[in-house]
Automatic annotation (TrEMBL):
Species the sequence originates in: Acetobacter persici
Protein name per its UniProtKB record: Alpha,alpha-trehalose-phosphate synthase
Example GO biological process: trehalose biosynthetic process
Listed GO MF terms: alpha,alpha-trehalose-phosphate synthase (UDP-forming) activity
Residues of the signal peptide: none
CDD domains, per the entry: GT20_TPS
UniProt xrefs under PANTHER family: BCDNA.GH08860 (PTHR10788:SF106), TREHALOSE-6-PHOSPHATE SYNTHASE (PTHR10788)
Amino acid sequence: MGRLVVVSNRVPAPRDRLQPAGGLAVALRAALKEGSCLWFGWSGQQVPEEDGHDPEVSVDKVENVTYATIDLTHAEYDGFYQKYSNGILWPLCHYRAGLMDYERKDQTVYQNVNALFARKLLPLLQPGDMIWIHDYHLFPLGQALRDLGVTAPIGFFLHIPFPPWSLMRALPDADTLLRTMQAYDVIGVQTEDDARNMNDGFAIVGVEAKAEVFPIGIDPDSFAKQAEEGLSNPDVQRLKESLRGKPFIIGVDRLDYSKGLPERFRGYEVFLERYPEHRGKVVYLQVTPVSRGNVPEYRALRRELDEAAGRINGTYGDFDWTPIRYLTHPVPRALLASFYRLADAALVTPLRDGMNLVAKEYVAAQNKANPGVLILSHFAGAAPDMEAALMVNPHDADEIADALHKALTMPDGERRARWDHLEPDVWRVTAVTWARDFIQALGKARTA
Ligand code: ADP
Ligand code: G6P
């Protein structure tokens, strides 16, 4: 069996206890526990401009994975990461064409950085390698590698949604982007909807390629273990003591407009308005690490949430009770797992999400005998397989409020029955089955 070469823009720092928040890094880390792997991508660092920028590749090996990363210049970071990837592709793929901030020049930087990735990866490749490219930052990377003569099997997986072509074509270069995807032997997406949308796009543009569904998951065994073992951690004990037996609701999301956070805060506000019996009693912890903090929409969202949390706490709080505990820094994963475990309900209410791993993590972390209730948006990729959750439309604050009341007053039997329905899928579709199925498909493409 040859080596697996994984390429993604975001590469976790191999020795960092605080992994970056984000489904891609979390799932890949869980999936790459066996076999020999090279993981190539951006170091997370920016360096000043220089003529003919030719970054060094830094290499670090931890267990079976060799991490190889390059720095980007400020201009590359700006045009490739902030503007084209996160100011254009991200909103568009999350069905928010109105937030897209298109300028043609950014497309050139995006293409150039993809070509740079290809040039820097080329000398690291070995005969027998299979290459697996991840996410919207790197749509054209397969083509850039083919242009350099790479004949190895190359697969691509999109972690985020793919919208209907009628929306996608708001991007002036959408057809060019789809054409470059002919370079891939296997193309994977999260859901049936994404596959249908992408395949419609291929048909309309006349591209011979086919997207298939490879749903992503978590490592449920190790997450459940962390949730259980972390209960004795002093920080978890501190949280527990601070709750003093009060019902506890949790939300965990990157600070991103796709996550529906203002709508969620509004739902919680309506809940306190319409169900006054919970005032002074319930605690809602929202853990929302700042993400892409230099992109204007993300800065505006942060201000909006600061304001909403302040307003709700000011209106409903009391000298001995804070309705929302709102954090904008990450929490170590081991702690997070036990926080989920303590929570009577979790709010996972994205407006649109590729899969959403938090929903699966919350289910995995529960105590079987006394599980909490998952409140889940219809618009998470995870939704079709998790309909035993309390399903909500995140745009309807009253529906969120009703779901919160229902969750906190749900009879034990119903809570257990719902969790019993949710659990099997979280264990059936994992990070490992996702990677295994994709790699098998890529292996078959090689043989063919
Ligand atoms: P996305 O990939 O859009 O960020 P997902 O829900 O698929 O959304 O994945 C998010 C991942 O990041 C999850 O594994 C989650 O536990 C992790 N994460 C999110 N927020 C935090 C946080 N505050 N601290 C630590 N990890 C976080
Ligand atoms: C989502 C994307 C990933 C990205 C992550 C964190 O999960 O699908 O590609 O890595 O968000 O975002 P960031 O911009 O910090 O890498």
